[in-house]
Design goal:
The complex is a heterodimer of chains A (149) and B (736). Chain A has 149 residues and is of the alpha+beta class. Helix content of chain A is 36%, strand content 29%. In chain A, strands 1, 2, 3, 4, 5, 6, 7 and 8 form an eight-stranded antiparallel sheet that branches. Chain A is globular. In chain B, the strands form three sheets. Chain B has a five-stranded mixed sheet, with helices on one face. A four-stranded antiparallel sheet of chain B has the order 3-6-5-4. Chain B has a two-stranded antiparallel ribbon with strand order 1-2. In chain B, 32% of the residues are buried. Classes of the chains: A alpha+beta (149), B alpha+beta (736). Chains A and B meet through α1, β1, β2, α3 and β7 of A and α10 and α13 of B.
Chain lengths: 149, 736
């Protein structure tokens, strides 16, 4: 399985999440490389670590406002920090599930972790250049970050 | 008859002994029953003989009583009845004695038979006498008178009979008693003997029964042990089948999978219940028809015992197969590599009973092998790259690598810019395409095939995006991955170049050559920064470098098409530093275009009366105090407005009306449109319709102009006028 296919699986996973769970489709911006800098973090970030055939991470980072509106669409009234963390964690968990399903035993996927705050850092692999895929939903901007070595 | 093995004999021995014991015990019991019956008869005979031996004496006593009664004229009626009963009883007893002796097997024994016959013979006279006595009693025995009682005639006759009987049978009764006594003694001995025999039989029977019990205990113990061993073996087999990672299964002669198989088989073949299915049924969803047919024929061979097994395995079509699992509820669609091997499981007769199949997932091994092959290929390509690096001019290479970095960064910036509408995405696509095309051209001019391949691959991806009606952001994922790969390749080459430079420096030091003449890795120029600080040194290197680059490019591009080209360069040593990159890009695109689209093949040139070698001329000059001129001319087929019109129509750049209204100058302008190309197929050097588009854009960005002069079949001349930057800023002097 090539890297582009693997990145495609994660992108489809996020878009499917919006289409099915949030029931409102999101659009994908043009992906690009984060050259010479770490990708910008948003308010809440769900991240899974990948090892095995490739090592690295996959993260979904989104602003608080976007996650709150998502929760509303999902008939949730509790907009607490914990619930926002749960939502971004659930998206990461969905990505993890997709990866397990589509990649099989070639990859080992960690339990999703949630990083809150724009100043948070992720454990990027030493050599990889992160690919940033903008996710546009309503007027909100989230990012899917894939950095696999 | 097949000979039994020692082990089999050991197993059969207890069974045979048990069977013998059982038979012997049955015989003993049967004999015992017979002996007991005989003993019973002998005992009866003994009782009868004993009873009979006292009978003569009793009869004699009764007769004596009757005699005395008659003499004293007392009542003898009871004695007479007792005598009659005794006689009847004796007769009956003799009959029963004969029967009992017969049943006891004593009737045929000479001694007992002789005694019985003699006793019976002696009894007969007595019996006859007693019978006569009963007959002789016909009336009253006594007659009473005044003188007392006296015997009547009947009484007298009876008395006479009694007296005679007592007198005649006196000796006979004694003999009879003796004979019956002897007979009783013999019968007693026979009873004792039979009793002893019966006891011996019973002892033997008890012994056999004990032996039988021991055997049964032995069998029970052995059966229990065997059952425990079988249970343990079954448990161990279960553990093996449950633990082993390979799929183990048995194929019966009818092709069906046996009930016992390893648990892994289910997961490996993704078949929930393989038992009972035929092997072909299991295989059908995983492989194509051709492989399935080959597998069926192969299995057929396995059942032919005469065919060598090792030979069969060497033609196993399932040794390593690629299987494609479809997506199911519990598992993802994926491609795996499985390896099947088969062995014959033979029965005791030597014939094939089952075929043992073993299937293993060898995906990791196959992928690892491929990775190793890829690594080997990479090593080879690294060697080739190293050779290129050794031959390349360091400054040119450094400049190119900088341009790769810049090109990728500019492409990335374009992708990063906002906008996900269809037009915006197409704009991004075109922008990245131009960058890649520029890089590809430069890579080709330097002979850096690895970069040509990579940039061409990105162009292919972008070209496919151009054809899509509804473009989406995620369509660019493969482009970004390839850009990342291109950047990674550039970094690899840069690292290699650094090592090559270090090696060259070391070699130079060793030769005691002043180091300032070596290892100059300064950047000539980049598109983003002209590197003014190194302009002087770079200018000294650049003209020869660009001409050399163009000469190499001409060779590279003309070789595959069978064309011959002579490139003449003029004034390239007068290109100012701030135009070095621009002129370089333009020259590369234009020379490549001239060869790919202008210069004809040899035969075509010969037919047109032209020399076989095409001529291309590149000339850089100062056209005026305000402008430089760059002229690129070829003696090729020229521009054909009609052909340009047709291609524009084909490519959808013009509709029919626009095409009809297109004049000559309009047709010439058309060749600068993005996506226009007269090449019929896409190659590394032509066909995308981007080269002149890039030239046009570059010249316009510099504030310059392009003029075309052409004559079909004769020549094409492009003249570009570029404004002099130092015209308004005289302090920035050119190398000229």
């Amino acid at each position: 399985m090539t890297l582009e296919t693997e990145v495609g699986v994660f992108v489809s996973g996020v878009l499917n999440y919006f289409g099915t769970t949030v029931q409102q489709a999101a659009q994908c911006g043009t992906p690009h490389l984060a050259l010479g800098e770490r990708p910008e973090m948003s308010d809440y970030t769900g991240v899974i670590q990948v090892s095995g055939k490739r090592t690295g991470l996959v993260a979904f980072t989104a602003p608080k406002s976007m996650l709150s509106v998502m929760l509303m669409r999902m008939q949730e009234t509790d907009m607490s920090h914990e619930n926002l963390c749960d939502l971004v964690g659930e998206i990461a968990n969905t990505l993890s599930g997709n990866a397990r399903r589509d990649f099989g035993h070639q990859f080992q996927i960690s339990v999703p972790e949630v990083v809150s705050g724009r100043g948070g850092t992720l454990a990027y692999p030493a050599q990889g250049r992160p690919i940033v895929i903008p996710i546009e939903w309503r007027n909100y901007h989230a990012r899917l970050i894939v950095c696999l070595q | 008859m097949a000979r039994l093995s020692l082990n089999q004999r050991v197993q059969w021995l207890p069974l045979a002994v048990t069977a013998l014991c059982t038979t012997a015990l049955a015989l003993l019991l049967f004999s015992g029953v017979q002996l007991a019956a005989r003993l019973q008869s002998a005992s009866s005979a003994l009782q009868l003989a004993s009873a009979l031996s006292s009978q003569p004496q009793l009869l004699r006593s009764e007769l004596t009583l009757i005699q005395r009664g008659l003499e004293t004229q007392t009542y003898v009626g009871d004695s007479l009845r007792s005598l009659a009963a005794g006689r009847a009883s004796s007769n009956h007893a003799y009959t029963r004695l004969a029967t009992a002796m017969h049943d006891a097997g004593l009737a045929t024994r000479s001694d007992t038979a002789a005694l019985y016959t003699q006793a019976r013979t002696n009894w007969q006279p007595l019996d006859s006498g007693l019978a006569g006595l009963e007959k002789s009693r016909s009336g009253e025995l006594y007659a009473d008178s005044a003188g007392g009682s006296a015997l009547t005639a009947s009484g007298t006759a009876l008395k006479r009979t009694v007296d005679e009987l007592l007198a005649s049978q006196s000796r006979n009764t004694s003999a009879l008693a003796g004979e019956l006594g002897d007979l009783a003694a013999l019968l007693r001995a026979a009873v004792v003997h039979d009793g002893q025999s019966l006891r011996a039989l019973l002892l033997g029977g008890a012994g056999l029964a004990s032996l039988l019990l021991a055997m049964m205990l032995y069998f029970a113990l052995r059966a229990g042990k065997a059952a425990r061993a079988a249970g343990e073996a079954q448990r161990q087999i279960g553990n093996i089948l449950g633990t082993v990672r390979e799929g183990l299964f048995l194929i019966a002669r009818d092709g069906r999978i046996g009930g016992a198989h390893s648990d892994s088989l289910v997961a490996l073949l993704r078949a929930p219940a393989p038992a009972g299915q035929t092997f072909e049924e299991l295989l059908r969803p995983l492989v194509d028809e051709k492989t399935l047919l080959a597998a069926s024929k192969f299995l057929g061979l396995l059942w032919k015992d005469k065919v060598n097994e090792e030979l069969i395995e060497s033609v196993n079509p399932l040794n390593q197969i690629e299987v494609n699992f479809h997506k199911t509820l519990g598992a993802a669609a994926e491609q795996r590599y499985l390896s099947f091997s088969f062995r014959r499981a033979r029965a005791a007769s030597g014939a094939t009973d089952f075929v043992l199949g073993v299937v293993a997932d060898v995906t990791d091994r196959v992928l690892l092998q491929r990775e190793l092959e890829q690594l080997r290929a990479n090593n080879d390509s690294h060697s080739a790259l190293l050779m290129q690096l050794l031959q390349a001019e360091p400054l040119q290479l450094q400049s190119f690598l900088n341009n790769v970095e810049v090109g990728v960064r500019r492409s990335n910036a374009l992708l990063r810019s906002p906008g996900i509408g269809s037009a915006e995405l197409q704009h991004k696509q075109q922008g990245v395409f131009r960058e890649m095309h520029l890089l590809k051209g430069e890579a080709a001019s330097l002979g850096m095939d690895s970069f040509v391949e990579r940039t061409h691959a990105i162009e292919e991806l972008l070209a496919s995006l151009r054809e899509k009606s509804a473009l989406a952001g995620d369509d660019f994922v493969p482009v970004v991955v390839k850009l990342d790969e291109l950047l990674g390749h550039k970094q690899l080459i840069a690292a290699m170049q650094e090592r090559v430079d270090q090696a060259k420096s070391a070699a130079a030091s060793a030769d005691d050559i002043p180091p300032e003449h070596h290892g100059d890795t300064a950047v000539i120029s980049t598109r983003t920064q002209p590197a003014a600080a190194t302009a002087t040194a770079a200018a000294a290197e650049r003209p020869a470098g660009l001409e050399q680059t163009l000469q190499r490019l001409a060779r590279e591009v003309s070789a595959p098409g069978g064309r011959q080209v002579r490139l003449a360069c003029e004034g390239l040593d007068r290109i100012p530093a701030d135009y070095a990159a621009v002129v370089r890009d333009i020259c590369i695109q234009m020379v490549r275009n001239a060869i790919a689209h202008g210069i004809e093949e040899r035969e075509q040139r010969a037919a047109a009366g032209k020399p076989p070698t095409g001529a291309i001329r590149v000339r850089f000059a100062e056209a005026s105090p305000q402008e430089y001129s760059l002229l690129i001319e070829d003696d090729g087929q020229g521009l054909d407005p009609a052909r340009i019109r047709d291609r524009a129509l084909e490519r959808g750049l013009l509709d029919v009306e626009q095409a009809a209204a297109l004049n000559q100058s309009g047709a010439y302008r058309m060749i600068f449109q993005p996506g226009f190309s007269t090449a019929s197929e896409v190659t590394e050097h032509a066909g995308r319709g981007v080269g002149l588009d890039i030239v046009n854009t570059t010249v316009r960005e510099c504030g310059g102009r392009i003029g075309i002069s052409t004559q079909p079949g004769k020549y094409t001349r492009f003249k570009m006028l570029l404004p002099r930057h130092d015209a308004s800023a005289p302090s920035h002097s050119s190398a000229a």
